[in-house]
């Protein structure tokens, strides 16, 4: 009584027309940002003709070709308007350090926003301590903790594939992306979070997986300025997932890894145990642990299927290891390979690196906290507070001076004289970094060792026990909709068939 009647207004605002109006106003406000002009001393500024979107569409259509054209016209440093953000790109690998060492740049400021938009994690916006403590957990993705995680991967692989090994040896067909999604999600979830104690385990993981991939399909829109309310049922899927991963439901899962235990302890210090935002943190971590591993697995297998010569060399390398360690194929699921042994499989590593080189479009992005001067070799550049600064490694991955015929898939590109090849050159100087799918510096992916080992273990199992053949002839292309964020997905799925080796 006597209060302003909010109800009807809220209903109006949340109606389709209200939301469309709100979106239009937002677009108007954001397009005002596009009126900026270049100031003396700033890098070349390229805004395109589309307000707000700027050059996003051209870049998304052909990221490498378009970036090369811009580089030829404007040099190695320029600022682009992309989806309402001004991003200054650094293209020369010898200038990457300018971004790494600058105190006025922040990775946290950039990720906090992403975590808020994508996963509804609010507390990191205000608590640096929570952020630091959570980062401390990442040490549990290395060393002896990594060995334990790898043991879990082996056991979970066994559970997923063992039943298949006793089936008759007929061909089964599957879509490769669907297969990779399913296998990586199940194995990674069981490895990191454990297994549900609920009566129907299969239903638990299938429901979680289905919701997760519906959410993931909207991920890139969540990062934009489009309010989540305008993204169909994304909000309710996100809510559902967060609830699934909240403390009371996680308590029904057995076999948490050390990293999950430590994260949960920290979260319970900063939230009440019932706070659903704890589930939002777990959703973020789960997303990080599978979203890039899945397409990496896809492309690695896809290229192998299309290159039988690569598949043959890899089978040989794996057979040789199994024989030299006294492990025979064909006697049930019994492979056990250590991290060191996996590390010595140079062709196995090379096929993964080659897939990452071709398909990783991860950029290393920092938020500019204060106006700063970027001292490049030829000239100093002024960069504005509030902008983003980005290293764009794909251009290095496709640089013909570094990689001969960079568009070609060469499975042994990272092997030389039977050893890992690590010497790649530009302008006659050896490069410190030449494939950068995992970021760099403070923000470097803490799960990279687990990701690579999990993919290696899965490939060893597939190649040891199964015959695999591609069935679709049409080449699959990269879909660039996630082009600044990680490994690109394929533009279509591809049919393949597999059977247990006779
Ligand atoms: C092939 C698979 C993977 C790729 C390509 C990948 C790539 C990346 C990249 C590019 C970043 C951001 C780095 C930056 O902005 O500088 C990142 C961050 C992160 N990744 Fe991965 N990742 C993979 C797998 C994993 C796995 C398996 C886990 C966990 C078990 C994981 C956990 C994380 C976490 C927690 C962060 C955030 C780190 C932070 O906030 O400082 N990633 N990853």
Automatic annotation (TrEMBL):
Domain of life assignment: Eukaryota
GO BP annotations, alphabetical order: bile acid biosynthetic process; cholesterol homeostasis; cholesterol metabolic process
A Pfam family the protein falls into: p450
GO CC, any one term: endoplasmic reticulum membrane
Residues involved in heme binding: 445
Subcellular location: Endoplasmic reticulum membrane; Microsome membrane
Residues engaged in binding substrate: 117, 292
Documented EC number(s): 1.14.14.29
Gene3D superfamilies per the UniProt record, alphabetical: Cytochrome P450
Annotated keywords: Cholesterol metabolism, Endoplasmic reticulum, Heme, Iron, Lipid metabolism, Membrane, Metal-binding, Microsome, Monooxygenase, Oxidoreductase, Steroid metabolism, Sterol metabolism, Transmembrane, Transmembrane helix
KW Metal-binding (keyword) present: yes
The keyword Chloroplast is assigned to this record: no
Enzyme class: oxidoreductase
Molecular-function annotations in GO: 25-hydroxycholesterol 7-alpha-hydroxylase activity; heme binding; iron ion binding; oxysterol 7-alpha-hydroxylase activity
Signal peptide: none
Known pathway: Lipid metabolism; bile acid biosynthesis
Transmembrane segments: 284-305
Cofactor(s) of this protein: heme
Family: Belongs to the cytochrome P450 family.
Descriptive protein name: 25/26-hydroxycholesterol 7alpha-hydroxylase
Organism for this UniProt entry: Molossus molossus (Pallas' mastiff bat)
């Amino acid at each position: 009584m006597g209060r302003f009647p909010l109800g009807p207004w809220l209903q109006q605002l949340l109606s389709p027309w209200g939301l469309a109006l709100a979106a239009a106003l937002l677009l108007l406000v954001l397009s005002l940002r596009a009126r900026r002009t270049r100031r003396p001393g700033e890098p070349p500024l390229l805004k395109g003709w589309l307000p707000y979107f700027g050059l996003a569409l051209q870049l998304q259509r052909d990221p490498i070709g378009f970036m090369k054209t811009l580089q030829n016209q404007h040099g190695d440093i320029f600022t682009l308007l992309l989806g309402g953000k001004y991003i200054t790109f650094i293209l020369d690998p010898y200038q990457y350090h300018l971004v790494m060492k600058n105190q006025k740049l922040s990775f946290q400021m950039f990720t906090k926003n992403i975590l808020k938009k994508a996963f509804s994690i609010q507390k990191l916006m205000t608590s640096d301590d929570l952020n630091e403590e959570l980062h401390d957990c990442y040490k549990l993705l290395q060393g002896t903790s990594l060995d334990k995680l790898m043991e879990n991967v082996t056991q979970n692989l066994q559970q997923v594939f063992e039943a298949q090994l006793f089936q008759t040896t007929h061909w089964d067909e599957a879509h490769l992306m669907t297969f990779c999604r399913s296998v990586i999600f199940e194995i990674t979830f069981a490895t990191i979070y454990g297994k549900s104690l609920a009566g129907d385990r299969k239903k638990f993981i299938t429901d979680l997986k289905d919701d997760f991939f519906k959410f993931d399909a909207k991920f890139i829109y969540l990062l934009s300025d489009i309010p989540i309310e305008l993204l169909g049922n994304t909000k309710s899927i996100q809510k559902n997932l967060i609830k699934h991963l909240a403390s009371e439901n996680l308590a029904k899962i057995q076999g948490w890894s050390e990293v999950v235990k430590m994260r949960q302890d920290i979260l319970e210090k900063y939230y009440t145990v019932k706070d659903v935002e704890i589930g939002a943190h777990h959703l973020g971590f789960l997303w990080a642990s599978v979203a890039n591993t899945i397409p990496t697995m896809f492309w690695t297998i896809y290229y192998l299927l299309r290159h039988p010569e690569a598949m043959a060399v890899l089978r040989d390398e794996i057979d040789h290891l199994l024989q030299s360690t006294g492990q025979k194929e064909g006697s049930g699921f019994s492979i056990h390979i250590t991290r060191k042994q996996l590390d010595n499989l140079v062709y196995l590593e090379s096929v993964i690196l080659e897939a990452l080189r071709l398909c990783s479009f991860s950029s290393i992005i920092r938020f500019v906290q204060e106006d700063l001067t970027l001292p490049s070799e030829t000239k100093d550049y002024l960069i504005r507070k509030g902008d983003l600064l980005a290293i764009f490694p794909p251009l290095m991955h496709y640089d013909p001076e570094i990689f001969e015929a960079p568009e070609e898939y060469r499975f042994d590109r990272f092997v030389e004289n039977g050893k890992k090849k690590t010497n790649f050159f530009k302008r006659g100087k050896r490069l410190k970094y030449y494939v950068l799918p995992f970021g760099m510096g403070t923000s470097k992916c803490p799960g990279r060792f687990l990701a690579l080992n999990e993919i290696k273990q899965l490939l060893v199992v597939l190649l040891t026990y199964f015959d695999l053949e591609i069935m679709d002839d049409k080449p699959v292309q990269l879909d660039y909709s996630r082009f600044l964020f990680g490994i690109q997905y394929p533009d279509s799925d591809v049919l393949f068939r597999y059977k247990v080796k006779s």
